[in-house]
What does this fold into?
Amino acid sequence: MPGQVPRPRSPFRRIRWTARLRLTLLYGALFLLSGAALLAITYFLVASGGKPRVFFLGSGMEGGPPLDSEAMRHAMRKDADRQREATLDQLLVQSGVALALMSAVSVVLGWLTAGRVLRPVRTMTEKARRISERNLHERLAVTGPADELKDLGDTFDSLLARLDSAFDAQKRFVANASHELRTPLTLQRALIEVALSNPAADARSLRTVCERVLAAGEQQERLIEALLTLARSQRGLERRRPTDLAPVVADALRTAPSDGVRIEQSLAPAWTPGEPRLVERLVTNLVDNALRHNDGGADAWVRVRTGTEGGRPVLRVVNSGPVIPADRVETLFQPFRREVSRAGGPDGLGLGLSIVEAVATAHGAELTAVPGPAGGLDITVAFRALPRTRVPTPGPAPSRSARRRPPAR
It folds into this structure.
């Protein structure tokens, strides 16, 4: 406002209150308070030590007048009191000067000590400022004793390692997704260009081209839907509802094309808090993977079981098939990892088990996959238990073992 006098800015606002400065002031203040307390206690003890006693020996000088003993005692007592007060004052002044000097020294020593203690922090700060998404492979590599600061540096290095792995996985995923999305588009464009460049194309050939373009579009649509499901699973759950795994598995088995594979199921109630659509996708992908990658021949089988183990709802899917080395099991859950199916070639989008892992992680479930004893995979998903107060009344659980007929074509 016009005519308003601006307030003077406080000089303390210009001071950068760093951790080193705060620690220095803290050290100095603690030393000053401790020294002042020590000085007060010392002064109190000296002052409360009692008055000095005065003693007389003899009655006066030889040949002189006799001395008045009471007057002499009084005079000497006053002189002793004055000396005592002067001594206390001198003690107080000298102790105060010593305390002021030592407080200044303590501030300097506190500044040096704080700088020494915070030196690893400055080193970590300088290194962390140089790290970006382009050099996430670098680490702080804090050296020194195994104290809290080294634990902080090691924790930050572990975080950088996880971020580096996540960035690499994201780059690979984006590259693979771009390739997978571009392939159907390239195929569609090639089909259309070939059809347009053929002057003798008739309605039948154009219809065939349109059907192939439509099939490529459907594949692209399935891929986009799978990518959206994967992204939604990795984002986490917005809400959870009580979900029974048994009917979800029963529906997935009822609609899955078995192609002569014997399906053995033992479905007991298994209630878990989760998102029903994502749980359904997890179950469908596991069943489809077990049926698709199963070359057990005439004795091909899939065993599916739901129930409770250790108080947790569990889904277990075991299938026959080729022997899978233990070191290859983890790679099966990577995006766009295709394996040879029973048809003799790579099949699917390569996202089935990736979506299973993402859905399990979103539900806080424990996913375990090990090679089967005679081939195939043994996958177990242990979900979180639903509180007993929220478990609905269980109904009859389906249980059967039969050879499924191939679906009508």
Notes: The first strand starts at residue 241 and ends at 244. Residues 342-346, 396-409 have pLDDT under 50 and may be disordered. The two ends are 86 Å apart (CA to CA).
